[in-house]
Amino acid sequence: MEVLGLIIARGGSQRVPNKNIKPLAGRPLIAYSIDAARRSRTITRVIVSTNNDAIAEAAVQEGAEAPFRRPLEISQGHSTELEAVEHALVWLRDHEKYEPDLVVLLRPTNPFRKPETIDRAVELLAGDPSAHSVRTVKFCSEHPHKMWVMDKEGQRIRSFVPVEQKAREAHTLSYHLLPTVYVQNASMDVLRPSNIWQLRSTTGTEIIPLVMDELESVDINTASDFLLAETLMARARETKTGEGDRFG
Protein backbone atom coordinates (compact mmCIF):
# COMPACT_ATOMS: atom_id res chain seq x y z
CA MET A 1 0.00 0.00 0.00
CA GLU A 2 1.29 3.42 -0.96
CA VAL A 3 0.73 5.84 1.93
CA LEU A 4 1.61 9.51 1.51
CA GLY A 5 2.51 11.54 4.55
CA LEU A 6 1.48 15.08 3.60
CA ILE A 7 2.44 17.98 5.85
CA ILE A 8 0.73 21.26 5.04
CA ALA A 9 2.87 24.17 6.25
CA ARG A 10 1.85 27.62 5.09
CA GLY A 11 4.19 30.58 5.40
CA GLY A 12 2.74 33.78 6.84
CA SER A 13 1.43 32.73 10.27
CA GLN A 14 -0.10 35.63 12.15
CA ARG A 15 0.22 34.92 15.87
CA VAL A 16 3.78 33.54 15.77
CA PRO A 17 5.91 34.72 12.82
CA ASN A 18 7.56 31.83 10.95
CA LYS A 19 5.84 29.44 13.34
CA ASN A 20 6.41 26.27 11.33
CA ILE A 21 10.19 26.69 11.38
CA LYS A 22 10.53 28.47 14.70
CA PRO A 23 13.09 26.58 16.84
CA LEU A 24 11.67 24.23 19.47
CA ALA A 25 14.29 22.54 21.65
CA GLY A 26 16.89 23.29 18.99
CA ARG A 27 14.96 22.05 15.96
CA PRO A 28 12.43 23.73 13.66
CA LEU A 29 8.88 22.92 14.75
CA ILE A 30 8.09 21.12 11.49
CA ALA A 31 10.99 18.71 12.10
CA TYR A 32 9.02 16.76 14.71
CA SER A 33 6.19 15.94 12.31
CA ILE A 34 8.66 14.98 9.60
CA ASP A 35 10.53 12.77 12.06
CA ALA A 36 7.36 11.00 13.20
CA ALA A 37 6.29 10.41 9.59
CA ARG A 38 9.69 9.05 8.57
CA ARG A 39 9.74 6.70 11.56
CA SER A 40 6.26 5.41 10.78
CA ARG A 41 6.07 1.81 9.53
CA THR A 42 3.19 2.57 7.18
CA ILE A 43 4.05 5.89 5.53
CA THR A 44 6.01 5.33 2.34
CA ARG A 45 6.69 8.93 1.31
CA VAL A 46 6.83 12.26 3.18
CA ILE A 47 6.05 15.50 1.34
CA VAL A 48 5.68 19.04 2.64
CA SER A 49 3.25 21.34 0.83
CA THR A 50 4.22 24.96 1.33
CA ASN A 51 4.27 28.31 -0.42
CA ASN A 52 7.43 29.32 1.44
CA ASP A 53 11.02 28.65 0.34
CA ALA A 54 12.44 28.76 3.89
CA ILE A 55 9.94 26.14 5.07
CA ALA A 56 10.72 23.99 2.03
CA GLU A 57 14.44 24.22 2.70
CA ALA A 58 14.01 23.27 6.36
CA ALA A 59 11.76 20.36 5.37
CA VAL A 60 14.32 18.97 2.93
CA GLN A 61 17.08 19.32 5.53
CA GLU A 62 14.96 17.23 7.91
CA GLY A 63 14.49 14.47 5.35
CA ALA A 64 11.16 15.31 3.68
CA GLU A 65 10.47 16.16 0.06
CA ALA A 66 9.26 19.55 -1.15
CA PRO A 67 8.89 19.00 -4.90
CA PHE A 68 6.51 21.91 -5.53
CA ARG A 69 5.37 25.22 -4.11
CA ARG A 70 1.72 25.66 -3.27
CA PRO A 71 0.20 28.60 -5.20
CA LEU A 72 -0.30 31.77 -3.19
CA GLU A 73 -4.01 31.90 -3.98
CA ILE A 74 -4.57 28.70 -1.95
CA SER A 75 -2.03 29.61 0.76
CA GLN A 76 -3.97 32.38 2.46
CA GLY A 77 -5.40 32.52 5.96
CA HIS A 78 -8.83 31.66 4.59
CA SER A 79 -7.60 28.86 2.32
CA THR A 80 -8.84 25.34 3.03
CA GLU A 81 -7.13 22.03 3.59
CA LEU A 82 -9.21 20.61 0.77
CA GLU A 83 -7.54 23.02 -1.66
CA ALA A 84 -4.06 22.15 -0.41
CA VAL A 85 -4.58 18.39 -0.48
CA GLU A 86 -6.19 18.51 -3.92
CA HIS A 87 -3.32 20.60 -5.29
CA ALA A 88 -0.73 18.16 -3.93
CA LEU A 89 -2.50 15.09 -5.33
CA VAL A 90 -3.06 16.69 -8.75
CA TRP A 91 0.57 17.85 -8.95
CA LEU A 92 1.94 14.43 -8.02
CA ARG A 93 -0.40 12.69 -10.46
CA ASP A 94 0.34 15.01 -13.36
CA HIS A 95 4.10 15.43 -12.84
CA GLU A 96 5.10 12.03 -11.44
CA LYS A 97 2.16 9.70 -12.16
CA TYR A 98 2.14 9.09 -8.42
CA GLU A 99 -1.21 8.24 -6.85
CA PRO A 100 -1.21 7.07 -3.21
CA ASP A 101 -3.75 4.66 -1.77
CA LEU A 102 -4.08 6.69 1.45
CA VAL A 103 -2.99 10.13 2.61
CA VAL A 104 -1.91 10.91 6.17
CA LEU A 105 -2.52 14.62 6.62
CA LEU A 106 -0.17 15.82 9.35
CA ARG A 107 -0.34 19.27 10.92
CA PRO A 108 3.15 20.65 11.62
CA THR A 109 2.13 22.15 14.98
CA ASN A 110 1.95 18.83 16.88
CA PRO A 111 5.50 17.93 17.98
CA PHE A 112 4.54 15.08 20.36
CA ARG A 113 2.75 12.85 17.83
CA LYS A 114 4.15 9.31 17.92
CA PRO A 115 5.01 7.17 14.87
CA GLU A 116 3.04 4.27 16.34
CA THR A 117 -0.06 6.47 16.57
CA ILE A 118 0.28 7.27 12.88
CA ASP A 119 0.48 3.54 12.16
CA ARG A 120 -2.62 2.82 14.23
CA ALA A 121 -4.56 5.45 12.29
CA VAL A 122 -3.46 4.06 8.92
CA GLU A 123 -4.33 0.52 9.95
CA LEU A 124 -7.76 1.58 11.18
CA LEU A 125 -8.70 3.07 7.82
CA ALA A 126 -7.06 0.32 5.77
CA GLY A 127 -9.06 -2.24 7.74
CA ASP A 128 -12.46 -0.59 7.24
CA PRO A 129 -13.44 -0.22 3.56
CA SER A 130 -16.71 1.51 4.50
CA ALA A 131 -14.94 4.39 6.28
CA HIS A 132 -13.86 7.58 4.54
CA SER A 133 -11.23 8.70 7.05
CA VAL A 134 -9.72 8.57 10.51
CA ARG A 135 -9.65 11.73 12.60
CA THR A 136 -7.70 12.14 15.82
CA VAL A 137 -9.55 13.52 18.82
CA LYS A 138 -9.03 14.08 22.53
CA PHE A 139 -11.33 14.15 25.52
CA CYS A 140 -13.10 17.51 25.72
CA SER A 141 -12.76 18.95 29.21
CA GLU A 142 -15.07 21.91 28.51
CA HIS A 143 -18.49 20.40 27.93
CA PRO A 144 -20.70 21.96 25.22
CA HIS A 145 -23.77 21.51 27.46
CA LYS A 146 -22.24 24.16 29.71
CA MET A 147 -21.50 26.60 26.89
CA TRP A 148 -23.43 29.77 26.09
CA VAL A 149 -23.76 32.31 23.31
CA MET A 150 -24.53 35.98 23.89
CA ASP A 151 -27.06 38.10 22.04
CA LYS A 152 -25.89 41.08 20.00
CA GLU A 153 -26.73 43.54 22.76
CA GLY A 154 -24.82 41.54 25.37
CA GLN A 155 -27.91 41.51 27.59
CA ARG A 156 -28.80 37.79 27.52
CA ILE A 157 -27.14 34.43 27.00
CA ARG A 158 -28.68 31.23 25.70
CA SER A 159 -27.53 27.65 25.60
CA PHE A 160 -25.08 26.88 22.81
CA VAL A 161 -26.62 23.39 22.49
CA PRO A 162 -30.38 23.65 21.88
CA VAL A 163 -32.15 22.91 25.17
CA GLU A 164 -34.33 20.25 23.55
CA GLN A 165 -31.18 18.26 22.77
CA LYS A 166 -29.92 17.97 26.31
CA ALA A 167 -31.12 16.94 29.76
CA ARG A 168 -33.10 19.43 31.80
CA GLU A 169 -30.80 21.83 33.66
CA ALA A 170 -27.81 20.06 32.11
CA HIS A 171 -25.63 23.10 32.76
CA THR A 172 -25.94 22.46 36.51
CA LEU A 173 -25.04 18.75 36.37
CA SER A 174 -21.67 17.26 37.28
CA TYR A 175 -19.51 16.35 34.30
CA HIS A 176 -19.73 12.60 34.99
CA LEU A 177 -23.51 12.80 34.49
CA LEU A 178 -23.16 14.31 31.00
CA PRO A 179 -22.38 12.50 27.73
CA THR A 180 -18.66 12.03 27.09
CA VAL A 181 -17.59 14.48 24.40
CA TYR A 182 -14.47 14.56 22.23
CA VAL A 183 -12.93 17.41 20.27
CA GLN A 184 -10.66 17.20 17.23
CA ASN A 185 -7.08 17.90 18.28
CA ALA A 186 -5.70 19.22 14.96
CA SER A 187 -3.05 16.49 14.87
CA MET A 188 -3.83 14.35 11.83
CA ASP A 189 -6.35 12.76 9.51
CA VAL A 190 -5.94 9.68 7.38
CA LEU A 191 -8.05 9.92 4.25
CA ARG A 192 -8.78 8.28 0.94
CA PRO A 193 -7.95 10.31 -2.19
CA SER A 194 -11.40 9.36 -3.50
CA ASN A 195 -12.84 11.67 -0.82
CA ILE A 196 -11.34 14.60 -2.72
CA TRP A 197 -12.57 13.58 -6.16
CA GLN A 198 -15.98 12.15 -5.27
CA LEU A 199 -17.05 13.85 -2.04
CA ARG A 200 -15.21 17.19 -2.31
CA SER A 201 -14.12 16.66 1.28
CA THR A 202 -10.97 15.55 3.06
CA THR A 203 -12.73 13.52 5.74
CA GLY A 204 -16.07 12.58 4.19
CA THR A 205 -18.90 11.50 6.48
CA GLU A 206 -17.86 8.04 7.72
CA ILE A 207 -15.13 9.02 10.16
CA ILE A 208 -13.30 6.64 12.51
CA PRO A 209 -12.16 8.28 15.77
CA LEU A 210 -8.70 7.77 17.21
CA VAL A 211 -8.37 9.12 20.75
CA MET A 212 -5.02 10.65 21.63
CA ASP A 213 -3.82 11.64 25.10
CA GLU A 214 -3.12 15.18 26.27
CA LEU A 215 0.61 15.08 25.50
CA GLU A 216 0.20 13.86 21.94
CA SER A 217 -2.56 16.41 21.47
CA VAL A 218 -0.43 19.45 22.32
CA ASP A 219 -0.99 21.89 19.46
CA ILE A 220 1.34 24.88 19.13
CA ASN A 221 -0.20 28.14 17.96
CA THR A 222 1.04 30.82 20.36
CA ALA A 223 4.25 31.89 22.06
CA SER A 224 3.01 30.42 25.33
CA ASP A 225 2.39 27.10 23.56
CA PHE A 226 6.06 27.06 22.59
CA LEU A 227 7.06 27.63 26.20
CA LEU A 228 4.82 24.78 27.33
CA ALA A 229 6.29 22.42 24.74
CA GLU A 230 9.84 23.38 25.71
CA THR A 231 9.02 22.62 29.35
CA LEU A 232 7.47 19.26 28.50
CA MET A 233 10.46 18.25 26.40
CA ALA A 234 12.92 19.32 29.09
CA ARG A 235 11.00 17.35 31.71
CA ALA A 236 10.99 14.29 29.45
CA ARG A 237 14.75 14.48 29.06
CA GLU A 238 15.28 14.86 32.80
CA THR A 239 13.25 11.76 33.59
CA LYS A 240 14.95 9.83 30.75
CA THR A 241 11.66 8.44 29.48
CA GLY A 242 11.10 7.07 26.01
CA GLU A 243 9.66 10.47 25.11
CA GLY A 244 12.91 12.10 26.20
CA ASP A 245 14.92 9.82 23.94
CA ARG A 246 12.66 10.66 21.03
CA PHE A 247 13.08 14.41 21.47
CA GLY A 248 16.79 14.30 22.23
3D structure, described in words:
- The chain is α/β, with parallel strands linked by helices and 248 residues long.
- The protein has 7 helices and 10 strands.
Describe this structure in a few short sentences:
It is built from seven helices and ten strands. It is of the alpha/beta class and 248 residues long.
What is the fold's blueprint, element by element?
Elements: E1 3-8, E2 23-24, E3 27-28, H1 30-39, E4 45-49, H2 53-61, H3 81-96, E5 102-106, H4 115-126, E6 133-139, E7 148-150, E8 157-159, E9 182-191, H5 193-199, E10 207-211, H6 223-239, H7 242-247
Parallel strand pairs: 1-4, 1-5, 6-10
Antiparallel strand pairs: 2-3, 5-9, 6-9, 7-8
Question: Alpha-carbon distance between the termini?
Answer: 31 Å
> Rounded to an integer, what's the Rg over CA atoms?
20 Å
Shape: globular
Number of helical stretches of at least 4 residues: 7
The main pleated sheet reads as: 6 strands, mixed
Strand content: 15-25%
Poorly predicted regions are none
N-to-C series of helices and strands:
EEEHEHHEHEEEEHEHH
Estimate the mean pLDDT confidence: 94
Structural class given helices, strands, pairing?
Answer: alpha/beta
Strand order of the largest sheet: 4-1-5-9-6-10
**What is the helix content?**
25-40%
Number of E-state strands? 10
